[in-house]
Amino acid sequence: MKRNAFINRSNLRDFVFIMCIVSCFFYNTNIISISLGTLMLLFGCFLHFITKGVLIRNTVLCKTGIYSVVRHPYYLSNFLIDNSFCLISGNQYLLLFYPFLFFWAYGFTLRKEEKFLGSIYNESYFNYSLEIPQLFPDPKSAKNFSNIFDGFSMQRITLKEYARIIRFLCMFILIIFAHHLKEQFVFSTKFYKSIANIDKILAITIIVLYIFSVVLLKRQKNHKRT
Q1: How far apart (Å, rounded) are the C-alpha atoms in residues 35 and 224?
Q2: Which of 37, 91, 94, 178 could disulfide-link 24, Cβ–Cβ 3.0 to 4.6 Å?
């Protein structure tokens, strides 16, 4: 059954990113938000990477490593990454409203996946769901963070995964760049003129990261063909 909704899992990040870019021209950010956002982004990317290295899709029920902390670590990493965008946008309303958008977009997918896994692994998945929280760690499951590399293999990490993480970084920097553009247009003081070099560095970084991600995706497609 396919769910038709304006906001869903496939377009939530695009919607959030556009809202963040627009917000940059109406709200201000600061070094604290950028610092916290950077930590949140890096942690989200780290979880994304670890999950990819542990997951054995459609073969076994993954219960070790990061899957001993939460049942859906991919979605937790997406939550953190998108939240980091909202945080540095400076729009506190978007930051507060994002959790509602997330569960609206992912709720259907979570229920569908849980039903599918339950139909395959039956009692094993039922017992697993009673022990491990769905999306956010609880005090008991958080103790398993020390074992998140159990079952991890670099061989499961594809070039597509590297490209995806690079694009997360690219989007994050682009939001910061939008803030700097606003400062350039709105303010005309010597201070803001002096940060023009930062704008150039950010722009070059965004272009280089994006090109690098495209190259990785192209290599991944060529690898599949051979």
Answers
A1: 38
A2: 178
**Amino acid identity at 150:** D
How is residue 133 annotated by DSSP? -
pTM of the model: 0.89
Asked whether the beta carbons of 48 and 81 are under 8 A apart, the reply is yes
Range of the domain at 219: 158-226
Judgement on whether residues 123 and 216 belong to the same structural domain of the protein = no
Using alpha carbons only, give the angle 86, 8, 171 rounded to the nearest 5 degrees: 35
Residues 59-92: pLDDT tens digits?
Answer: 788 899 999 999 999 999 999 999 999 999 999 9
> Where does the chain have alpha helices with state H?
12-24, 31-54, 73-89, 92-121, 123-131, 139-142, 159-186, 190-194, 196-225
Distance from the first to the final alpha carbon of the chain = 35
The CATH number that applies at residue 19 is 1.20.120.1630
pLDDT of residue 6: 75
Mean pLDDT across 199-207 = 84
Structure tokens at 211: 């090109």
